[in-house]
Model the fold of this input.
Amino acid sequence: MKVRVEVVAIDSLMVRLFDTIDEANMPWMLAASQRLSAAFMKHLVDLVPSYTTLMVQFDLPPAQARALITQALEGLQPDTGSGGRRHEIPVWYDASVGPELPVLAARTGLSEQEVIRLHSEREYPVFALGFAPGFGFMGLVDERLASPRLSTPRKRVAAGSVGIAERQTAAYPAVSPGGWNLIGRTPVRLFDREREGYSLLQPGDRVRFVAVSHAEFKALGGNDSPLEAQA
Amino acid sequence: MTQLKIEASTALCQLQDAGRFGVRHLGVTQGGALDWVAMNWANWLLGNPLGAPVIEVALGGFSVVAEQDCVLALAGADLDARVDDQPLAPWRSFALAKGQRLTLRQPKQGVRAYLAAPGGFQAETVLGSCATVVREALGGIDGRGEALGKGQGLTFAGSSPALREVPEALRPVYSAKPVLDLVMGAQIGDFSGMSLFEAFNSDWTLDSRADRMGIRLLGPQLVYQGAPMISEGIPLGAVQVPPDGQPIVLLNDRQTIGGYPRLGALTPLALAQLAQCMPGAGVRFRAVVQEEAWREKQAFNAYWV
Done:
């Protein structure tokens, strides 16, 4: 790993750590985030992690910020324990709320049960949040489940919808347009302004999806109305 | 108690402030006044903190009636404002007596006007800001991300200060074809030589496809020759170039990460100018380096210190 620091805007620098998406990046990304937060303290306006980069926005002269970044990341070691919480996210996998579940099964030649097993048996790191508040990009799913985005995105995807795009997976925190292949729905609230930290998922967390029945989904407060009907 | 009652509004009349910070890693966008310079002046006129909540009115169609005597301030675009039937020029604070009506009708010069009230308009603070972001259902009067609507009441708590104007020499000029400073970014070397020449030597036209997330520009097709990018953080003002070669300037309500290559990012001062340009207007880019842009902004901010 070689740290590169690039200009992106008047008050922002991009810290580039890697060139490919890889789970193995995450302990390094977490460690770098922590060190940058500690180094900038109140001069940090925002720190935006993504798959291979950390964008640092600051209220310091740029040369001073660059020096601080270099100094903070000297001798960086991966975070092998403390960072990143683990979550189990219940999902009701069903064609009525995940219309691409049978499509995916048909395309891969797997049974729906097999698709569900493959999706829920792995633990996925949260690479980044984006697209919408609390929307976590996770992966990588089993190669057999890799699916291109829908050629025409849906105008309306229900809150809690769980989907796959290429080898990534995510759950939609709120009703929104969306082009991911939907395979189920979670009753969990992913973004809540009343929650400490607001978002259930934080960059660097690890997630396992757990298959639940319709009854369990309802008992957990899930809304099983069809895609278009949910307000 | 309500001091102002909204009689007319549009989806483009919203409560804004300096924006939402420290939450970008959660996928939460920045929001805030598109023309922060005009917002600052509107607040300055009343002695408010410069980023206090104001009403951003784009293109007009906004009207309020005073339910008690008050002092307000107006800065930014000239939207043919009237107090009852009397014309009201921007860049000043003014008295609005109980029963009087303030109307912002339509653009005469510029696009966005900012209305400030003593102490700032009161609203629920959500994630550290009351900036309205409709797409995220955050901010605004009730915190749910809704634009201002007819019949709503507006409240503020500050006392009425003496009337004043922004000194003429300090008022921004909304020129016909502004030159926008662009801090060159790391991918700039991955555009073709011809594209780089054209980027900084052509007129760019504002497309009608424009909102608070971004403004498309029409002009020569820019060709990116670098490798495909992995999504990464997007700064305010980023000038990204999707495969069709027509740049998009990303604004306050942009997505937080994305994977299109960028020429760089407009400076905050350039963004304030751009926010006052109509669709169809022409702009040019001027390349600047980060340190120089930073120093210029510090000098500019000294007006208000």
Notes: Chain A has a mean pLDDT of 94. The longest strand of chain A covers residues 4-9.
